[in-house]
Amino acid sequence: MKISLSERMDSFKDSIFTELSRYKNKKIAEGAEMIDLSIGSPDLPPPTFITTLLSKEVTKRDQYGYSLTGTAEFYKEVSAFYKRNYHVQLQHDSDILLLMGSQDGLVHFPMVFADPGDLILVPDPGYTAYAAGIAMAGAKPYFMPLKKENKFLPKLSEISKEIAAKAKMMILNFPGNPVPALASRAFFEEVVEFAKKNNILVLHDFAYSELYFEGKKPISFLSIEGAKDIGVELSSFSKNYHLAGARIGYLAGNPEVIKAMNQLKSNLDYGVFLPLQKAALIALREGEEFCKRSREIYESRRNLLVGGLNELGWQVVKPDAGMFVWAEVPKGWSSLDFTYALIDSANVVVTPGHAFGPHGEGYVRIALVQSNDELTKAIDSIKQSNIFR
Ligand SMILES: Cc1ncc(COP(=O)(O)O)c(C=O)c1O
């Protein structure tokens, strides 16, 4: 039988990530010792209080039924967390939806709120799953460039009236991946005004909410006056609590949006393993010290890497938040050529910026997901290569 794929699958071709991973594995097979700074998954373990609780909970034989949705206990904890952390009031029984990781919310969101052909405003460069969700819904992305001269914030005044009128949704992500920028309160206020004026639903991806440096705590979009009228915020346990493989996250904000998402999800899945829901709520309740310690580790990696690269002649900027360094490639290189040059002459793997959208060209993303020792090795290796001579 000839297996034929749906036309939709044209949007899900092998990506540059697959290509790079193949190239890296070929190098490893040839005996090279690669330092991989392209991964977006935390290398550190989750807190001990979580693994201890999980190991106890999984032995309880009554915890194995379908959870269907979030437990009241989980929702109440999210509500308390938002109140304590961001002074935001969330009704536990209407304003929050449990997710199997924030990706679950991201990729399904366009399907619930956009029809084929509808426009969705997305950051460029932006996290690749936004494009996947938009493609699944048959909608179309409209790129909002993130430029250095605008502090990597989209310039809403540059979106034409026609585009604004056609757009159904806007996706935002601060601190971002791949660009670790932070939104200002003034920018978020402008977003609320723009969204209200143009009837645009806003999805703020807050996956890196606890990763910030020097006290520059990221702003919750929901803490902006009027935000809950037009939007929702996505949260994840993957990066904040190093639970990436244990799939759990949540969406919070506008109750009508939450209800509609729940309507789709109640047809698609059966909730999240109950012990994991319990672990996640304890993470919110008791995780503050853990997050603080984790920030210190990332900050020391950031300082070491940026300091080392600047010293060897690669001028990169220290991020204020997030898990990545968004580094401009030296003059004369394309993102891809520079990425391959780093692999070939320094055994260091990064991600070329254009993989995240056209305005990513000219940059590479370096993930802070290796120990200080590995980062030191990477710096030495780049120094010894002929790239910056
Ligand atoms: C910006 C952003 N949003 C969402 C996700 C998905 O995270 P989760 O593990 O919660 O599905 C990621 C993962 O890398 C991400 O970088």
What attributes does this structure have?
389 residues; alpha/beta; Aspartate Aminotransferase, domain 1; Aspartate Aminotransferase, domain 2; 2 domains; 7-stranded mixed β-sheet; 3-stranded antiparallel β-sheet; 14% strand; globular; binds pyridoxal-5'-phosphate
Short précis:
This protein is 41% helix and 14% strand.
Task: Give a description of the structure.
The chain has 389 residues and is of the alpha/beta class. The protein has two domains: 7-45 and 289-384, Aspartate Aminotransferase, domain 1 (Alpha-Beta Complex), CATH 3.90.1150.10; 62-286, Type I PLP-dependent aspartate aminotransferase-like (Major domain) (Aspartate Aminotransferase, domain 2, 3-Layer(aba) Sandwich). It is built from 13 helices and twelve strands. Strand 5 (167-173), helix 7 (185-198) and strand 6 form a beta-alpha-beta unit. The radius of gyration is 21 Å and the shape is globular. The model has no long low-confidence stretch (mean pLDDT 96). The structure holds pyridoxal-5'-phosphate. Pyridoxal-5'-phosphate (PLP) binds at residues 40, 101-103, 106, 127, 173, 177, 205, 207, 236, 238, 244, 249.
Strand and helix map with partners:
Blueprint: H1 16-29, E1 35-36, H2 48-57, H3 72-86, E2 96-99, H4 102-113, E3 119-124, H5 129-136, E4 140-145, H6 161-166, E5 167-173, H7 185-198, E6 201-205, H8 227-230, E7 231-236, E8 249-253, H9 255-268, H10 274-286, H11 288-312, E9 324-328, H12 335-346, E10 348-349, E11 351-352, E12 363-367, H13 372-384
Parallel strand pairs: 1-10, 3-4, 3-5, 5-6, 6-7
Antiparallel strand pairs: 2-8, 7-8, 9-12, 11-12
Helix pairs in contact: 2-10, 3-10, 4-5, 4-9, 11-13
